[in-house]
């Protein structure tokens, strides 16, 4: 579609206006007149981390993060997706937990989101993809949160070297319910 396409520009409908935000319109009226809820899609930047040989249990490695502003969503629900490529540079054996955490406005301590995902490797000599998703519906409107994925070694010690490549966190966020009661 280009600027010459029929219906490309319409003065009557500007989906970026502040007063079209569902939360704003819902909070202003006793009898809410719901509008379509916006959807936010956000992708973080890929990163890479290498776990050296003989890494001890409890050692953590930040893998990926992104900031997400849900201020225009009523009772937001966020689906977070993590993907990576695990590459053994030298035969790797060990167990690693992957966990999503969030820090929102006014918080100082990261809060876990969903379960920890355990990946147990026994003599990995090649590469393998690792991906998971979790949902966060424990947020309030008018929040900006930083979500991050942290890897924690859970085996006594690792053997070999593991590279976690193209670690990427992405999010899809929308209103959590069909009602407009914020």
Molecular structure report:
The model is unreliable at 1-31 (pLDDT under 50). The protein contains one helix and eight strands. It is elongated. Strands 1, 2, 3, 4, 5, 6, 7 and 8 form an eight-stranded antiparallel sheet that branches. The protein is 4% helix and 54% strand. The chain is mainly β and 182 residues long.
How big is the Rg? 21 Å
Helix-strand topology string: HEEEEEEEE
- Tally the helices: what do you get? 1
Low-confidence stretches: 1-31
Question: How would you state the average pLDDT, rounded?
Answer: 80
Tell me about the largest β-sheet. Answer: 8 strands, antiparallel
Report helical residue fraction.
under 10%
Report the portion of residues in β strands: over 45%
What is the number of strand segments? 8
Distance between the termini: 36 Å
Shape: elongated
Q: Please, what is the oligomeric state?
A: single chain
**Structural class determined from secondary elements:** mainly beta
């Amino acid at each position: 579609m280009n600027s010459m396409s029929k219906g490309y520009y319409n003065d009557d409908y500007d989906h970026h206006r502040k007063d079209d935000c569902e939360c704003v319109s819902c909070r202003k009226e006793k009898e809410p007149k719901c509008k379509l809820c916006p959807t936010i899609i956000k992708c973080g930047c890929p990163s890479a981390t290498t776990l050296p040989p003989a890494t001890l249990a409890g050692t953590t490695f930040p893998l990926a993060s992104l900031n997400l502003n849900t201020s225009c969503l009523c009772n937001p629900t966020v689906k977070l997706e993590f993907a990576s490529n695990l590459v053994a540079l030298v035969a790797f054996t060990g167990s690693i937990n992957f966990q999503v955490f969030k820090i929102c406005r006014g918080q100082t301590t990261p809060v876990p989101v969903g379960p920890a995902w355990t990946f147990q490797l026994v003599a990995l000599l090649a590469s393998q993809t690792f991906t998971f998703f979790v949902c966060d519906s424990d947020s309030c409107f008018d929040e900006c949160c930083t979500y991050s994925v942290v890897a924690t070694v859970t085996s006594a010690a690792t053997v070999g070297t593991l590279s976690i490549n193209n670690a990427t966190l992405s999010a899809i966020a929308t209103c959590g319910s069909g009602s407009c009661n914020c």
